[in-house]
Design goal:
Structural class: alpha+beta
Number of strands: 4
Order of helices and strands: HEEHHEEHHHHH
Number of helices: 8
Helix content: 40-55%
Number of domains: 2
CATH class of the largest domain: Alpha Beta
Distance between the termini: 38 Å
CATH topology of the largest domain: Beta-Lactamase
Largest sheet: 4 strands, antiparallel
Strand content: 5-15%
Strand order of the largest sheet: 2-1-4-3
């Protein structure tokens, strides 16, 4: 994943709203920023607290600027007994609910901030969204590595995997997976080799083995 594009950000906002509705039954504000801390997307659910508008944005900003979740940032301030004012950035906040969005390699893509629930719930939701970004990247890479053929149209194969990853339809998932060329299983080689040796009769006993 090269960056947080608008479709991925919209998907994150949608997922956050869906989880908040189904799991907590309370409105939230959700903010997503880029790797520099600048806002990319924001969503305020109906009835979301007005104060949560700015809080969610600052949580996303803080997680990116500090490189850790806002919960971890709060723990650091308490552990080291320092004031947040020492960082000379009025946009920083230590309220839990912000998480760094990293890809599978650990590269920072951006940050997400949640506000409107309890601090622990805000952080849990933000962490879940962050995990989905990392897990999604690993999934694409795994499918790409396993199914990319040695020859042929590799671009088409990669595009198929991307469509497979973004599809929510399990039936589509199955059809696309079946259409992607698979490399020959390594475990099948010894069995195939044994059959060829056995079919050679006395030749194999003289040490002349067929080429694999």
């Amino acid at each position: 994943m090269e960056a947080l594009d608008l479709p991925r950000v919209q998907r994150l906002l949608s997922d956050a709203v869906s989880i908040a509705q189904k799991r907590f039954s309370r409105p939230v504000c959700v903010s997503v920023c880029d790797s520099y801390g600048f806002l990319i997307g924001f969503y305020r659910m109906d009835g979301g607290p007005v104060r949560s508008i700015q809080l969610s944005q600052q949580k996303a900003y803080t997680s990116v600027r500090m490189g850790v979740s806002t919960e971890a940032f709060l723990a650091r301030l308490r552990r080291e007994d320092i004031s947040i004012g020492y960082f000379c950035d009025p946009l920083l906040t230590a309220l839990p609910g912000g998480a760094v969005l990293n890809d599978a390699t650990g590269r920072t893509l951006g940050g997400v901030g949640i506000s409107g629930l309890t601090p622990a719930e805000d952080q849990a939701l933000a962490d879940e969204l962050a995990s989905s970004i990392a897990a999604g990247h690993q999934y694409v890479c795994a499918r790409f590595t396993l199914h990319l053929p040695r020859s042929g149209n590799s671009t088409l194969c990669y595009d198929s995997i991307q469509r497979l990853h973004h599809s929510r339809d399990s039936a589509t998932d199955h059809r696309l997976s079946a259409s992607i060329p698979r490399r020959r299983s390594q475990s099948a080689r010894p069995r195939a080799y044994a059959r060829r040796v056995a079919s050679c009769g006395t030749r194999s006993s003289r040490g002349h083995h067929p080429a694999d």
